[in-house]
Amino acid sequence: MQQKERIKKHILLKHHKNTKFRVENNTHASRHILNKYHNDTIFRNEIKTRSKIDILNKYHNNSDFRTQYKARSKQQVSKKYKSDPTIRLKTIERAMNWYHKNNTLMRQSSRRLYKQRRRILKKYTVRQSHKCADKHRNLHMNNLNRFRQIIREGPDYICISCRLALFRNQEHIQSYFNYSSTIEKKWICKLCSDKIKKRQMPSRAIVNKLKVCEVPSELKKLNNLEKHLIALRLPFMKIVNLTSGKVSSRFAQKGTKGPLHCVPSDVQDTVTTLPRAVDKSMMVRLQLKRRLKYKAVWEEQLINPNNVRDALFILTKMHPAYKKLLAQSLAGLKM
């Protein structure tokens, strides 16, 4: 034992004093340790665990070493991420897998906030759609109520200028005419009122040669089919009531439905084909069709050829469109 201690002391003194020996001893020891590290697995694992423990202790205890280690590791990671595409793809894939698999509080809070935003947006859009629907519904109901208020009374207000029967909202109570003899109210339409205020003649006034003449008795006594026989054009249309409910069909507003056909009629051919009237009371059964080749009958009625003749004579004197009828065609109907 004394011999070993004496040898150790001698080697230590030589190691401290002789530099050449110290260098040779260090190189020999490092080579021996490297060879043992590469060949002996147990020794290598012990060195690794010891070094990891030393680094962890130094990392937790020494703040300067900790900051330097963080900065150095960040630089190395960013450099590898930018230069190596495989590492970059692996990092992205690892982050995605971690987000999908790891159910941490951060992921739960982010998912909760996302669902909350979606719920608020959905509630806002539904509320806005309901508001728009209510607004349009209220607007429609207001317009409908206003229209019903307007047509509550029929077109019973007659303008004193043009004699048109209009609704109440289309008329004014005249205030610039003095009718001391009458107590009843006088009505005037807006168009005539504006023209009179400008001291102009209304274009549709009765005094502007637009007075409706009285219908002659020869035309009054004609029935529907006789009127159709002497008409220059026959309109075919379907007329329906626009309003329903308490208003009767007589006073309801009318409107057309479906196609409208206007068929020209040759009155001269009609006059020549009518049978000669033997007596004033002679009646003929007649059928009216849209076209002769059609089987369906539009109207069927008894007519008096004598009444048709008298009405045509009156129309040739009054209406310019009937003056082209030949005199002999009309004379053929005479008794």
Automatic annotation (TrEMBL):
It comes from the Eukaryota. Residues 198-324 form the DUF6570 domain. InterPro entries: DUF6570. Pfam families: DUF6570. This is DUF6570 domain-containing protein. It comes from Rotaria sordida. The lineage of its organism: Eukaryota, Metazoa, Spiralia, Gnathifera, Rotifera.
